[in-house]
Amino acid sequence: MSASAPRLTTAVPDTDPWPLTVCTYNIHGAVGCDRRFAPDRVANVLREINADIIALQEVPLGGGKSPNVLKELQQATGFTAIEGPACDTPQRRFGNAVLSRYPVVSVRNVDLSFGSHEPRAALDADINCHGHMLRVVATHLGLRIPERRDQVRRLLQVFDTEEMPVILMGDLNEWFVWGQSLRWLVSHFEAVPAPRTFPSRRPLFALDRIWIRPRHRLVHVEVHATPLARIASDHLPLIAHIDG
């Protein structure tokens, strides 16, 4: 990436953080639809969005000879970066991450692995948005129905709290509009808009979701479908605007 590339605006306002913009983005290992590994394109998509808190999935986190894409994105944005590896071996570290304009107070990584399937996890972070505490859960669920049901059940048990607003963001991999896992989430969070995000060139499925509790804080949900976003990953970023 060019050393002179502009960064996201990182100044924190002197008043409360509302309205707040959050985003979830499956970056596909920073490999675009043209099969080119290009973390700089992902960074430029994040600059286009200029969100306050960003949940990322399929993030290479280093290990062995593997690249650390999160480190590059942190340098590009100037944000606080936290990682939640689903795969964590000396040869390869890979999974979820969060980039935040605001300070991260505490972090928990929740193992959501199911049997012998690909390892999955949820990154659970408490973020201090200028004195307003916010709980952000970034996750990437499994490909099979029983797997997703088990993972959603475990997630709802882990972060069911009334102590602070909760945002669940990520790639839920739910292809069915009325799948059981989605019904459970609707029951817990209430219904939310679900624009289509996958595949990025011509979206057909709403795999990426943003849920918030209490629901009235969610103002608007939209897909970021610029020409760059359509090629930088096989998913489009999903953005939510939140007010206090």
UniProtKB/TrEMBL annotation:
UniProt keyword Nuclease present: yes
InterPro entries: Endo/exonu/phosph_ase_sf, Endo/exonuclease/phosphatase, GPI-anchor_lipid_remodeler
GO molecular function list: endonuclease activity
Keywords recorded for this protein, A-Z: Endonuclease, Hydrolase, Nuclease
Keyword Phosphoprotein: no
Domain (Endonuclease/exonuclease/phosphatase): residue spans on this chain: 23-235
Protein name: Endonuclease/exonuclease/phosphatase family protein
Species of the source: Noviherbaspirillum album
